[in-house]
From TrEMBL:
Protein name: NitT/TauT family transport system ATP-binding protein
Gene3D superfamilies registered for this protein in UniProt: P-loop containing nucleotide triphosphate hydrolases (3.40.50.300)
SMART domains cross-referenced by the UniProt entry: AAA
Family annotation (PANTHER family): ALIPHATIC SULFONATES IMPORT ATP-BINDING PROTEIN SSUB, TAURINE IMPORT ATP-BINDING PROTEIN-RELATED
Length: 258
């Protein structure tokens, strides 16, 4: 579905200086697959998501979707990024319906679909609220519903639950898994939480310290549908968490070369 081929990213910083953010990343995201990306702070996880989203143009290498090169953002990829705040002047319903209205869907069907999606993310009854009247977790649910509204084949999620308390985070992880198991979208998910990555993913990609290279790709061979309470007691789950934590922590310093 998505083929990332030898992607490197070098940013110009200051006078004539350059910073290598990503170095020679190659990765395939299969149809319906859930991949998480983990790695030390600053290793280029968000940059990789922005490149796949078409918001940042890579310095070298290519990204293809179903064989077509990515040249910019498109409705086939749905970003759920912290930076893309909700429109404060629109209601919850208006925020979710917005993308559909932009695509030319008439108001009534767009709002009907938005109501369905809000029900799916547990926000029925909040249609007429504004963003400032919502909790952080509720805003994140609206952001997910807003992206799902235009039915992208791929979800690009940059630490969507990072700012939430543990209870809300667990609930949203479960909701996301339910949506994913029903719709089987492909997901690229950036997180700092090893537990979250193992719980959600088919594969976990561990990047090296900056400049980010692929250090390991771990197949998560755990049964689905996943039930958190069972997984926590599953020795194989525990071992994945221990192994991946060690991969992130035990990293030598690297040379800056693209
Ligand atoms: N537009 C930019 N110009 C210059 N440098 C940038 C730019 N965007 C990102 N960087 C640098 O690229 C590196 C990777 O940043 P990125 O945000 O992708 O890392 P990350 O792994 O997502 O970090 P974190 O886990 O802390 O969120 C960082 O050193 C950052 O300073």
């Amino acid at each position: 579905m998505i083929a990332i081929k030898h992607v490197s990213q070098v940013f110009a910083v200051g006078k004539g200086e350059r910073h290598v953010a990503l170095s020679d990343i190659s990765l395939d995201l299969r149809d319906g697959e859930f991949i998480s990306i983990l790695g030390p702070s600053g290793c280029g996880k968000s940059t990789l998501l922005y490149i796949v989203g078409g918001f940042v143009k890579q310095t070298s290498g290519s990204v293809e979707i179903d064989g077509r090169p990515v040249t910019g953002p498109g409705p086939d990829r749905g970003p759920v990024f912290q930076e893309f705040a909700l429109y404060p002047w629109k209601t919850v319903l208006g925020n979710v319906a917005y993308g559909l209205r932009q695509q030319g869907v008439a108001r009534a069907p767009a709002e009907a679909r938005a109501r369905e999606l809000l029900a799916m993310v547990g926000l029925s009854g909040y249609e007429n609220f504004y963003a400032k009247q919502l909790s952080g977790g509720m805003k994140q649910r609206v952001a997910i519903a807003r992206t799902l509204a235009y039915n992208p084949a791929v979800l690009l999620m940059d630490e969507p639950f990072g700012a939430l308390d543990a209870h809300t985070r667990n609930r949203l992880q479960n909701d996301l898994l339910k949506i994913w198991e029903r719709d089987r979208k492909s997901v690229l998910f950036v997180t700092h939480s090893v537990e979250e990555a193992v719980y959600l993913s088919d594969r976990v990609v561990v990047l090296t310290k900056s400049p980010g290279r692929i250090k390991e790709i771990v197949d998560i061979d755990l049964p689905r549908p996943r039930v958190r309470a069972e997984l926590l007691l599953n020795p194989r789950y525990q071992q994945y968490v221990i192994d991946i934590e060690a991969m992130i922590d035990n990293q030598p310093e690297q040379e800056e070369a693209a």
